[in-house]
Amino acid sequence: MKSSARVVVIGGGVVGCSVLYHLTKRGWTDVMLIERSELTSGSTWHAAGGFHTLNGDPNVAKLQQYTVELYKEIEELSGQSCGLHLTGGVMLAGTKERMDWLKMAHAKGRYLGMHTEIISAAEAKKLMPLIDESKFVGAMYDPFEGHLDPYGTTHAYAKSARLKGAEIVLRNRVIDTIQRADGTWDVVTEQGTVHAEHIVNAGGLWARECGRMVGLELPILAMEHMYLLTEDMPEVAEINASTGKEVITALDFEGEIYTRQERGGMLLGTYEKACKPWSEKETPWSFGHELLEPDLDRIAPSLEVGFEHFPAFANAGIRRIINGPFTFAPDGNPLVGPIKGLRNYWVACGVMAGFSQGGGVGLALSNWIVDGDPGFDVFGMDVARYGDWTTLGHTNAKVRENYARRFRIRFPNEELPAARPFRTTAIYDRLVEMGGVMGDSQGLEHALWFAPSKAEAKDEFSFRRSTDFDHVGAEARNVREGVGLLEISNFAKYEVTGAGAEAFLDRLLPNRLPAVGRMVLTPMLNPAGKLIGDFTVARLADDRYMIFGSGLAEAYHMRWFLAHAPANVAVRALGLGLTGIQIAGPKARDLLAKIAGRDVSAATMKFMDVAEFDVGPFPALVGRVTYTGDLGYEIWVKPEHLRGLFDLLLAAGAEFGAKPFGARALNALRLEKSFGSWSREYRPIYTPWEAGLDRFVSIQKADFVGRDALLAARDKGRERILTTFVVDALDADVIGDEPVWRDGKVVGWVTSGGYAHASNASVALGYVEAAAHDFAAPYEIEIIGERRSARALTEPLFDPKGLRMRG
């Protein structure tokens, strides 16, 4: 074993070997993988080996496509077979709702270049003769599904990496990882210490333990997962003989099972509701090539449904039952990327679908290490989507929930109940008593909409307009006609101070910084000139700034801030140390004037002004800005003052018709203004020119991160253009990722949308290919399998000149 390497990868499963191979592919050959036992010793060796390209996040789906296409490459390079069986597969729908879900998944696939097909139950029966077609209403066929040999695939990655110069050290457990003062690492192992510039935690079942070596508690948990192998089945032999092909894979959502051929029989696996975690607090280092005790009683309900839906299974003998642990993150997607505050420490774990996602994870992480950027939009699997608020117990509850729901539909208006409420503010109970239907964002409760009473505060889950529709409409209209109150404690808040604060932010952000007492809107860019954030920046003193952004991206943005901040700058995420309420609507100024400790007239407190003064008895930071696009103010107070502020605003605002509104009304209001949002319209695959944010970029500035790339992109011309559409919708509005059609071709995709109640219009925001962009052209947007006509807007539906918010 060498005493040093540029990168040390910890863990010899399929993910670790993929990362190692991709690093060598990028030209980094001084790399080493250290495995405590043998390759495939954790979850990899007992995996069912299935792969597919479908994922709820289109960006993750693209990487899954890449993974499947990669297997031929590593087979040819290594000479090691992956045991690839590209059989194709059917996803079976037993209900109308599931069929709608498949239609939406098929629509996503159109702009991803996938080749899925919606078929009838009878057509599914022809492709997969083992099913009872009477149990299903339809299906989706995907030709790029199948299965492979986990052992062969992992070794193909490993051999390919070795051929390119990588070193692999087996039977050598990592005992500790210690960072030196210069940011490099000592990887302490049973066979000695390796000095590395970078380390990658791809520890699989032991990733949590490896993380704890550096004080990191990763939100992952291992779950017991069972599948069974049948004896040879005559029905399988008949299909093989009559078609000359293997039985295709099948996924039965109602049965919560998946199947594929295994030798002369079948493999049947399940994600049962009565799921069971494994080694909840600590994974034993002594665990190796072992299996867990089978528990057929636990999966019996799923098997009963499976035997009804696949009758041949009822007569098949069971050859073997496999029960082994796999790790999951709370949302089921991988945890990939650098760790905030830890220089050159990377994770690639929680990859439960390693043979669908392992190649994409290796590609993204190797790019990230070499280039400082993954090269793709990978926020859906970025470890930074979880912040410091996660705990072992919270992870445990959410992983159980995700596992038990893996084959269930997650409706766009469905909030999941496990481990809730977890984080609350001082007005949580007030909002609930007022009929608030609560949502969970980053573990924090926030109001989605308000029902007439607490008893009626319940969503009816649907892909179509639901029980909240009229109530959200009333909230939105109240904002446009009077004044509404929205808690905004779930926004991200950062304080930037120090002698170097101005120079730091001026370099980091492409817009000009505001004067003291003023605010500006600004994107943030990576070196490639792509969007990695959008903020409101307030300047409170020469060396003190406040930054407001998306709560979803707090850890993501703090990681970036800390990685770039010099020694004379302090950046602090305030979290729930600062809470707030937004007031918005034409009577917002009247309400604030009634209780403010200073003059807030239009002449004194102009649009985008910010100041610290008392609101009633409460010391507050007040900015004249609102995401509704109306006249409004954001009022920020310490958490101990939030309850009093809320009560004061309600009481003082009674004469103006002040009422609370929720996140869904806010969405309806921002759609009327064509305001984009982080993680939907603004992501690292778009430039400010494409996203319509060019007015917030000052190219006259001599230098800022991404400037050269941005100017090159401007000169090259936009590849796509963010566009607002009014859609001729029926009883369903877009939710995101629907294809945009023009002249019979898919020319773009929807990023977000919904119903803009105050304008009585169904609205969609989305990107259209520049060559196909024409405001006068007729478009169509596909909603639940039906193409609806759509009209591109040249200006926002509400107050296009911005007179209300500026007046």
Provide a concise account of the structure shown.
The chain has 20 helices and 38 strands. It is of the alpha+beta class and 807 residues long. α1 packs parallel to α5 and α12 packs across α17.
Secondary structure elements and pairings:
Elements: E1 4-10, H1 14-25, E2 31-34, E3 50-51, H2 58-78, E4 89-93, H3 96-112, E5 117-119, H4 121-127, E6 138-142, E7 146-147, H5 150-163, E8 167-169, E9 174-179, E10 185-189, E11 192-201, H6 207-212, E12 221-230, H7 234-243, E13 249-252, E14 257-262, E15 265-270, E16 277-278, H8 296-309, E17 318-328, E18 335-338, E19 345-349, H9 354-371, H10 392-404, H11 428-433, E20 436-441, E21 444-450, H12 469-481, E22 484-487, E23 492-497, H13 501-508, E24 519-525, E25 531-541, E26 544-549, H14 554-564, E27 570-573, E28 579-584, H15 588-595, E29 610-615, E30 618-623, E31 632-637, H16 639-652, E32 659-660, H17 663-672, H18 688-691, H19 707-716, E33 720-727, E34 739-742, E35 745-756, E36 761-769, E37 779-783, E38 786-792, H20 803-806
Parallel strand pairs: 1-2, 1-11, 2-8, 4-13, 11-19, 22-32
Antiparallel strand pairs: 3-7, 4-6, 5-6, 9-10, 10-11, 12-15, 12-16, 12-17, 13-14, 14-15, 18-19, 20-21, 22-28, 23-26, 23-27, 24-25, 25-26, 28-31, 29-30, 30-31, 33-36, 33-38, 34-35, 34-37, 35-36, 37-38
Notes on the protein architecture:
With 807 residues, this protein is of the alpha+beta class. Among the domains are: 4-328, FAD/NAD(P)-binding domain; 492-575, 2-Layer Sandwich (Alpha-Beta Plaits); 707-805, Aminomethyltransferase beta-barrel domains (Elongation Factor Tu (Ef-tu), domain 3), CATH 2.40.30.110. Helix content is 27%, strand content 28%. The protein has 20 helices and 38 strands. Strands 4, 5, 6, 12, 13, 14, 15, 16 and 17 form a nine-stranded mixed β-sheet that branches. Strands 1, 2, 8, 9, 10, 11, 18 and 19 form an eight-stranded mixed β-sheet that branches. A hairpin with a 2-residue loop joins strand 34 (739-742) and strand 35. The longest helix is centred in the N-terminal third of the chain and has 21 residues, at 58-78. The protein is globular and about 80 Å long. The protein starts with a strand and ends with a helix. The mean pLDDT is 95.
